Amino acid sequence: MTTDTTYLLGHDPAELARLEQQARMLAPATRTVLELAGIAPGMRVLDLSTGAGDVAFQVAELVGPTGSVIGIDQSVKALAFAAHRTEQRALANVSFIHDDLHTVPVTGEFDAVVGRLVLLYLPDPENVLRRFAGLVRTGGVVAVMEYEMTAAGTLPPTTLSEQVTFWIAESFRRAGLDASLGARLAQVMRHAGFNGATVLGVQGYCEAGDRDAARMAAGIIRTLLPVLEKTGVATPEEVDIDTLEDRIARDCVHHDVIFKLPTLVGAWARVA
Ligand SMILES: C[S@@+](CC[C@H](N)C(=O)[O-])C[C@H]1O[C@@H](n2cnc3c(N)ncnc32)[C@H](O)[C@@H]1O
Q1: What is the per-residue pLDDT across 29-46, written as a single tens digit (0 to 9) for each?
Q2: Continuous segment of H or E residues that includes residue 221
Q3: Measured on CA atoms in the order 93, 59, 121, 189, is the torsion positive or negative?
Q4: Which site among 6, 17, 80, 117 is 20 to 30 Å from 139 CA-CA?
C-alpha cells in the first residue's frame, strides 16, 4: 500500500470539503453519464480513485441493494471520510480499498469500472484503464469522466474571471497536467484498447447570484495556491485568497454574468 504523496491537490479538511462541494455541483452531470453508460441495478462496480466517495454513492443508488460498489484510493484521509459518509448514509453495498491504482491486487469479475477526475493524475492513464478493463466481464462497461477546464469562465468574461480561469489552467499546465484531458478522452480510450467510445460533455451553468459557483472557483484557487506560488503563476498578494470568493461573487453580480462550470466529459465503452 502507498500513501498520497504525489496527488497534486492533497487531502486536508478544506480540500475534502471542497471535493464534497464540487461533487454536489457535478452530481447531475455525473448521474447523466453513469446512466447513459448503462450503470444499472444489480451491477458490481469498481470506482477508481474514489476520493471522498461521491461517485461511489451515486453508483450505489443506481445499482441498488442487489449491486455493490468498491472504491479504491491511495489516500487514507479521503477514505476515512468516505467510510464515515457511507455509515451516515447506512449504505451496506459500498466498501473501500486503500491502495495505489498501479499496484492494488484486485481480482474477480466486475460488471463495470468507473472513475471521475482520476486519469488526470496518472502518468500512464491508458495502461491503468487497460488493466482495470481486464477485470470487467464481456459486455460490461468502462466509464470515465474528466474535466475540459478551458470551457469554464463567465459570460461575458470579466477581468477577474479571466484572471481566475488563467490561474487554474496555467497552474495545471505548469504542473504538467492537461487541463483539456476531458476533450481528449476518445484518444485515451482508443489507446486503452476501446475503439468507438461514446464521448459526451455536460456543462453546468449558474446565475450571477449563485454563491456556490464563486465558492467553487475560490476553493480550487485556495487548493492550488502553493502550486501558483511555486510555479510563479501568481503571488499571494495578487490572489489575496481570503477575499477572493467575495470578490468573485460581487464581480459576477456586478456584471450580471452567467457562470460556466468546467465541462465534465464522460467517455464509455463496452468490453468486447
Ligand atoms: C480529484 S480527486 C477525485 C475523487 C473522486 N473520483 C471524485 O470525482 O469526487 C482525485 C483522487 O485520485 C486519488 N489518486 C490519485 N492518484 C492515485 C493513484 N495512483 N492511486 C489511487 N488513487 C489515486 C487521490 O487520492 C484523489 O482522492
Answers
A1: 999 999 999 999 999 999
A2: helix 211-230
A3: positive
A4: 117
Picking from 88, 47, 87, 51, the residue whose alpha carbon sits closest to that of residue 67 is 47
Among 9, 19, 46, 49, the mutation site with the greatest number of ligand 1 atoms within 8 A of its Cβ is 49
Q: How big, in percent rounded to 5, are the helix, strand and coil portions of the chain?
A: 45, 20, 30
Q: Where are the domains of the chain?
A: 13-267
Distance CA 200, CA 169 (A): 21
Per-residue pLDDT reduced to its tens digit, 170-210: 988 888 899 999 999 999 999 999 989 999 999 999 999 99
User: Which residue matches cell numbers 504538467?
Assistant: 176
| CA 102 to centroid of ligand 1, rounded, Å | 12
Contact call for residues 183 and 265 (beta carbons, < 8 A): yes
pLDDT of 10 reads 59
Q: What is the tens place of the pLDDT at every residue in 126-176?
A: 999 999 999 999 999 999 999 999 999 999 999 999 999 999 989 888 888
pTM, rounded to two decimals: 0.91
If we measure between CA atoms, which residue out of 140, 148, 61 comes closest to residue 132? 140
Ligand 1 mean position, distance from CA 254 (Å): 36
Q: What is the DSSP letter of 48?
A: E
Out of 19, 72, 121, 129, give the residue to mutate to test ligand 1, the one with the largest number of ligand atoms within 8 Å of its CB.
121
Where does residue 43 fall: left (phi above 0), alpha (psi -120 to 50 degrees), or beta otherwise? beta
The long-range contacts involving 62-65, CB below 8 angstroms and separated by at least 24 positions, are 62/31, 62/34, 62/35, 63/39, 63/93, 64/93, 65/92, 65/93
User: CATH number of the domain at 13-267, out of 3.40.640.10, 3.40.50.150, 3.40.50.720, 3.30.420.250?
Assistant: 3.40.50.150
